[in-house]
Amino acid sequence: MYQSSLFAPTMREVPSDAEAASHRLMLRAGFIRPVASGVYTFLPLGWRVLRKISAIVREELERAGAQEVLMPALQPAELWRTSGRYAAYGPELIRFKDRGDRDFVLGPTHEEVVTALIADEVNSYRQLPMTLYQIQTKFRDERRPRFGLLRGREFLMMDAYSFGENEISLNAAYEAMYEAYERIFARCGLEFRGVEADSGTIGGEGGSHEFMALADVGEDTIAFCAHCGYSANLEKAEVGRREGEPRADSANGGATSPELVHTPGARTIEQLTAAMGVMADETIKTLLMVADGQATAVAIRGDHEANEIKIKRLLGAETLEMADAGTIAALAAAPAGFIGPVGLKLPLWIDFAVADMETGIAGANKGEFHLRGVVPGRDFPLTRVGDLRNAAAGDPCPRCAEGRLDMRKGIEIGHVFKLGTKYSVPLQADFADAKGASSPIVMGCYGIGISRMMSAVAEQHRDDRGFRWPAAVAPFQAHIVPVSWKDASQRALAEELYRTLQAGGVDALLDDRDERLGVKLKDADLFGIPSRIVVGKRAAEGIVEYSERSRPEAEAVSAADAAGRCKQRAAMT
Amino acid sequence: MYQSSLFAPTMREVPSDAEAASHRLMLRAGFIRPVASGVYTFLPLGWRVLRKISAIVREELERAGAQEVLMPALQPAELWRTSGRYAAYGPELIRFKDRGDRDFVLGPTHEEVVTALIADEVNSYRQLPMTLYQIQTKFRDERRPRFGLLRGREFLMMDAYSFGENEISLNAAYEAMYEAYERIFARCGLEFRGVEADSGTIGGEGGSHEFMALADVGEDTIAFCAHCGYSANLEKAEVGRREGEPRADSANGGATSPELVHTPGARTIEQLTAAMGVMADETIKTLLMVADGQATAVAIRGDHEANEIKIKRLLGAETLEMADAGTIAALAAAPAGFIGPVGLKLPLWIDFAVADMETGIAGANKGEFHLRGVVPGRDFPLTRVGDLRNAAAGDPCPRCAEGRLDMRKGIEIGHVFKLGTKYSVPLQADFADAKGASSPIVMGCYGIGISRMMSAVAEQHRDDRGFRWPAAVAPFQAHIVPVSWKDASQRALAEELYRTLQAGGVDALLDDRDERLGVKLKDADLFGIPSRIVVGKRAAEGIVEYSERSRPEAEAVSAADAAGRCKQRAAMT
């Protein structure tokens, strides 16, 4: 394409609310423009990247045996009522009435639609296994859209659904998709990790993995062990327990009962440690929560964070929230900050790390007082003990005997999930086996955020001057920049190179604008096209300068050589 | 692809509400499935056709210099308020509030979004001309969705927008798109006509064309002249006037004034002609209408149909509707059916055909009476005369001196429209010319119904047994059908052919199912893949049967020959 006819409006200043580097660059380089909060138009360069990513996704999913379909965005609410999600989904689900006053939703995902389809069309084991996928615009009314394409309200997504007879075929489909994902992300040039993820009450162990692109802007935290390769979303990451780990204990270990200490105003762990001159890991914090309407207390070491997903799972609860001030006042003898496990009249869950303490400092269940020298098991029961907290850097790896956990930030770019029969049961998607016996179809679901992936690639492939797109997803493969478009021999050589590249299947952009070289190179850096050929004063001799965006030393080479290098570069990831 | 793993659930019985042949076949052959009224899922075969059509559209639009973008479906109502369409669009526009209580619409079209983008990003004549397009899902809450993909509520559409400095650049963009459309429809194997269409109050003459695929199921009527090639949507088709045309006149031509006739109960033209023993073309019907709140009468010959679009245009009215009973009672001296032009106290418009009558029969403006021998110009004024009716078969062509109009039914598959500055003015999309003077950008808009086109192609390419897809849009190019998949030599030859075809770029479907030949051929006819190779008992000799769906005589040929023919066939439209 000739650049003078490319619609790529660049910007010098970007809005101050563009927090992520990828978002700022996409605005600056004219890849996207906002239409509303979390809603974007893809301009030609952005759309080209999106199409290249989509093409890779299609190729790899077809290779894995999945078939492409297209389901509608408009979905009758009735289907969502049948699955139970119409009420459960919350305000992210966009709802409206059609002109006949029927309730509809705008699809944030398609489990209901696809399961209803399969319920109608599949009835025999002969039709299984099968995996369907689509690449489609999805809608979620996010509370706080941010980071450009990373958290939008309208976004492009690949979602796939597998259907099989049993766990064995589910596992096979899951593996095939997992491997396809690895190929997709690798081809797009991403540094990523497949991590264990929480799968709620369905799926069991290994029932869900997320794929995380490593990036500081990521909203997820990955806990990983460099020793054995274990990695998991922090939501899910288990905490290893090892004999002989050092234990932090508070003073007063020898007393036969806890000592009451006056701690006025010490409501937070920070205030408490300051007041008493101890470390946070010597303290126990006791949280009041409401799980499915039942009040429950949870005791965590002061330096740790409670993990609500683990707690929910351990309790088998559908909903879990922190108790509000009113609930605390009704149930506890002291205000928040002074509650403790000793003598508490509520079901009490103890985190492993608390159970492992010899003594600790805890709330006294009396306003403005704490207890020093509390001994777990002696002063409060250890009947309900479990892994209730977020893993922390330095924790022992839960899988191997030597490694310790480390933390990285990640962007969730994909998800694979063993659904089991969660949707096939309510939507009556059954099949008859060889003997004629009927069972619900066993399903998996799989998602890749296509537009989010574009941001993730951008986060990993950029510098101060602009993007550095991997060849496989770059909007163009080669950028031809004549120093002066008015110079006849430069122009002739540039156009010849353009024709050669296009004929050789290398998508080229030719900067035919009447601009200063500095302006042209600045835009070229911003766009981030992998190969660059500058056609300058040696054009008459057939000599040009070849460079790469990710390795910018320019080399004087023949035009034919430059074209060859562009072609070689285009074939790389 | 191997057919045993293709999800293409065929049906014997289709729902009785599937009125169009294309709709019935798409259901029967497993190309689509309904999710709600006017809302469909595209199954793998249907999606393949849609993708092939989209690819052709992209190729031809890129060749015409248009650039692809993707705009969002979620659009802030604010943009629609600015253009004035938020109120005007009616119940087809799906509206909802987001979680922040802001009004949004689901895009049925994108003039507002694209014009707002251009208002922000284009400011100089140097950035013009430019044409942007997208292929995207659109939403219109149709009052009566029908005919499957022909009139749906969610559908795939290509919409394009051109931006230029003036009428000249608009005309150039319009021409380029018009020609691209012709190539697109021809490549997809459609029999179609580009017809003049109404462009409302904008655009002037030649400001809008529709592309119609000829099909009896079409909801539009095309008036055309076989002699000179004139063709127009009936909404817009002009009526030619020729000297010496025979005139139908009622009796009583010699009297000096009309004669009052008692015609009890003759409220309709049918009742009137029966009661008086005359032909409909001897009568004059007088319609009361309300244009922009003003009552107006319109006189049309009894055998003609009023054309509201022409009337609206002639009156320069924004809105036009038939007067209701209350309005008639308030304004006219007689009830509907007995109103006539003689002595009527309302602005009166006369159709050319009425002005051309020597005498006629008309309502007497007195209940249960008509007037015979009414002479236009003598008994009522001919001050406001115009073309107010639909053209009818046999009418003189408005363009040439000899031809007469004929009528065909058509499906509107595309539209090109000169918008002018309708959106650029309210949305302030201005540019500065070379002298720095600012003017609004002159726009055109262009649409192709991609999913509707799929139905139109299907309507034109089918028979009792199924589809007969043109090669360019067929879901597969070649269908390999072994008589018996269990026969080792048939299977080996079929698989060899499959590999040969795939390697040669011919998309093949191999029926590897363990079914009777009759079942396989029935499905093959239904799917309508252009080339077919039946591998039967002469497989061991390397001989197969080649046939084409549109020309089913089978020929025994060598496998290599059959593969060659498939390849040749795939290259045809």
Largest interface: A-B, 53 and 52 residues
Task: Let me know the largest β-sheet of chain A.
Answer: 9 strands, mixed
- CATH topology descriptor of the largest domain in chain A: BirA Bifunctional Protein, domain 2
Number of helices of chain A: 14
Q: What integer is the average pLDDT of chain A? A: 94
Strand content of chain A: 25-35%
Instruction: Supply the number of structural domains of chain A.
Output: 3
What is the C-alpha radius of gyration of chain A, as a whole number of Å?
A: 29 Å
The CATH class label of the largest domain in chain A is: Alpha Beta
| Total number of strands of chain A | 31
The CATH homology group name of the largest domain in chain A: Bira Bifunctional Protein, Domain 2
Structural category of chain A: alpha+beta
Mind telling me which CATH architecture of the largest domain in chain A this is?
Answer: 2-Layer Sandwich
Shape of chain A: globular
Low-confidence stretches of chain A: none
N-C termini distance of chain A: 22 Å
Helical content of chain A (DSSP H or I, runs of 4+)? 25-40%
Q: Please give the oligomerization state of what you see.
A: homodimer
Subunit structure (chains A, B): Homodimer.
Keywords (chains A, B): Aminoacyl-tRNA synthetase, ATP-binding, Cytoplasm, Ligase, Nucleotide-binding, Protein biosynthesis
Catalytic activity (chains A, B): tRNA(Pro) + L-proline + ATP = L-prolyl-tRNA(Pro) + AMP + diphosphate
Region (Disordered) (chains A, B): 237-261
